[in-house]
Amino acid sequence: MALDKLLGENSVIFTKSEQLFDAARANSLWYLSYGIACCAIEGLMSAGGPKFDYDRFGIFHRGSPRQADVMIVAGTVNKKMAHALRKLYDQMPEPKWVIAMGACACTGGPFREYPNVVLGVDKIVPVDVYVPGCPPRPESMQYGFMQLQDKIRNRRKEMAREQRSA
Ligand code: SF4
Fold first, then answer.
1. Are 136 and 43 in contact (CB under 8 A)?
2. What's the pTM?
3. Whose CA is nearest to atom 4 of ligand 1?
4. How many helices (H) and strands (E) does the chain have?
5. Hey, whose CA ends up nearest to atom 2 of ligand 1?
6. 100-156 pLDDT, tens per residue?
7. Hey, which of 58, 102, 122, 157 would disulfide with 127, CB 3.0 to 4.6 Å?
8. What domain range is 135 assigned to?
9. Ligand 1 atom, smallest distance to 76 CA
């Protein structure tokens, strides 16, 4: 329902600018995909296609880290590429978030016995949302994005709570 219909035509809303910015951020997430294995093919690429159409939620793919808010790590990360992954993360502007997509990105998955595999991308970058599965369905990624949106909308409250308890 349109906001003017919900509140009445001449209504005024008061809010904090930070909350307004966070609401805008949560509804316009540009993701830098870090697709390195089957998860990227089977789960992530179909997310942007016509069936699942993440664009309608304001979630867009972006090819450059400098204009991306979210990094999606989709696939098995090995030690050789850890440095490149961290470099891309560092090139993203603040505030930024990370989604670990699939068992491999979350924990090393079925390849965790191999010595060259990183046992979870959280060893390299801070992860905000974990989406398990091998591979996760696009619907699971959608749910992961909804969790991230909640986290972004409530992050000021979370920061204030942490400051109070420190
Ligand atoms: S979690 Fe499964 S589908 Fe995803 S990258 Fe690992 S092996 Fe492939």
1. yes
2. 0.87
3. 39
4. 8, 5
5. 134
6. 999 999 999 999 999 999 999 999 999 999 999 999 988 899 999 999 999 998 877
7. 122
8. 27-148
9. 5
